[in-house]
Protein: DUF1957 domain-containing protein
Organism: Candidatus Syntrophonatronum acetioxidans
Amino acid sequence: MPKGYLCMVLHAHLPFVRHPEHEFSLEEKWLFEGITETYLPLIKELGQLITEGVDFRLTISLSPTLVSMLGDEFLQERYINHLEKLIDLAEKEIRRTEFDPTFNPLARMYLDQFRESYYLFKEKYGKNILRAFKEFQETGHVELITCGATHGYFPFLGLHREAIYAQAVAAIDLHTRTFGKAPRGFWIPECAYNPGDEEILKDLGIKYFFTETHGITYATPRPKYGVYTPILCPSEIAVFGRDPESTKQVWSRTEGYPGDYYYRDFYRDIGYDLDFNYVKPYIHPDGIRIHTGLKYYRITGKTDDKEPYQPEIAREKAAEHAGNFMFNREKQIEWLSGLVGPPPLIVAPYDAELFGHWWYEGPSWIGLLLRKMAFDQDMVKTITPSEYLELNHPLQVSTPSASSWGNKGYHEVWLNGTNDWTYRHLHKAAERMIELANCYPRAEGYQKKALNQAARELLLAQASDWQFIMNAGTMVEYAVNRFKDHISRFTKLYDDIKGQKIDPNWVDRLHSADNIFPHLDYRIFRSFKETTLVEKPELQRVQQ
């Protein structure tokens, strides 16, 4: 019998990016890099663990925007083209480094990886890797949960409660249709909790969500066991808090594992290092140097002087760090078990893209850790949130504190001088969408199609990614243009619907371009004053 439990959570999210109007889209590469460097390596590791009979549990949050892109046939074909170019580049690199004993093995390593990715993506999973996650769910090793429909920042959408409701309903509906099972858990985007939001999630059948550490430690009343057991909101939905110690060991730039000098350096890429004419076919068509994914150096140190990457040593380091992480969790549980009444729980949530994309060895580290947890000790067992709740230990009733896992723990990343101008447009658009949903409860034909598209454009405008990018100062023009495009499209749809001058051809073009949530029902934005939650047909459908 274990003394305590470890709940690892990977939150996988990318903004909805799909540009059929362009031959090449730099922003679509976010998805392609995510598939090649994070999602496929994780799928490979988890599949191998299951084949080996390793008893493990992992929780994965798949955002609806990511789910939509992974299931999109147009993007699937573009990814195949992207992967074929990577294979071509790796083959070219093998020829270039033929007589170089240092870099030729690395070029061969990448070629093997890209070919394996091609096999997994195209042959094994028929271009739809969502099938892999569904299989992991069905074996019981992985619990899949959802997130806000477009990763909207709930505290700043809450001026209209209907906006949060719509974000949740659209997400749960897509998740249920995709994976054949309604999610029990919900990842509030950016862990941005605002008291009262959980009541909407509870009414939609959600059993638990997550907060940053101080969301629990500053809860009212103060939880007796801190973040080491979940608490129960007065609305009877459970809340799991992030453990700071396990977070620091992985996330910290200075103390975390990914910064080890033997791990692969993310920033040194042949797209920048090699002759321009040589890499030109594999970079931006406008001649802008970009990452190709072929990186030959290790972190080495804080200077620009880098040593060649050595995969064997890096894997040894990953095994060492997996053992260290397990050792620390054992000691942590041993100490906590003397203080906490119920079996203590360590909740360790991370951005999925950290593993593989930023930290190349990350997926291997996860596989090594889960093997060690299963075979090398018996004090700590991996568990999912649902399984922990099924242990039926009494939970303290408490209301979490407002919080997020953004910089400084609150909301300033998403509301500051770089992005505050967006909210007046979002609030007005939400007000207008609620008006449309109330005015046209039984729309048909192109009126209904236009209303559904208006809801779609509003959801896309609500994505917190746009404010995040504006704050970060990179790709700002793209984020600003995307936000303005969706708001402009929504506004024209609103005017056309109200003025009874809908242009069917334009609506069709919009629907083809912004095709997320194909089953979206605009009535999810109906005013709470018009109908109660229980009376909403879409809520009844989700709960069935």
The chain has two domains: 4-62+128-261+311-408, 412-543. DSSP finds 21 helices and nine strands in the chain.
